[in-house]
Write a structure and sequence with these properties.
Cathepsin D, subunit A, domain 1; 6-stranded mixed sheet; 1 helix; 174 residues; mainly beta; 2 domains
Amino acid sequence: MHATFRGQLIRCLLDSGGKCSVIGCRCIPGVRLRKPSYVLSAANKTVLPIDGDADIHFTIDDIPVTANVSVSPAIDELLLGSDWLVQNRCRWDFTAGTVYIGEKLVHTNQRERTDACRRIFVAESCTVPPRHEANISARMIRQGSRCYASEWALETRVIQPGVVTARTLLDGEC
């Protein structure tokens, strides 16, 4: 599904397993945030960074709705959790691919498959002293299950004055 917020189309995922709704901070720039109500964790138990909470007004298939959302820089879409599904008296027919939002019928669609790296997170805290080098473990999160057969080599890059990455190599198994 897609939601429309201030004229912008946002990919929307219904998440009946999620207790609360979450939106990516890039989806709602300039919205005033409140202090976060929750500490959120991903399915693998890693803490999800939260910038704050907000009440947003948007539409789904021209149906005006609201949601209380936690705002995170770690996601790129709107995840409507069980809090929103209950608040809006939703009934979800998985076989038909439809959702009733109150009394209004909305057709769902499956997420388009993309094989692209979405984010890279440092797996552990690491301090590299000046004029030293280190191998730093990282976990790459990407959608899809297809890995490319080739290896990736990333060239030297200045991150900020005095901080340089060099000769990074990722194997074809990601």
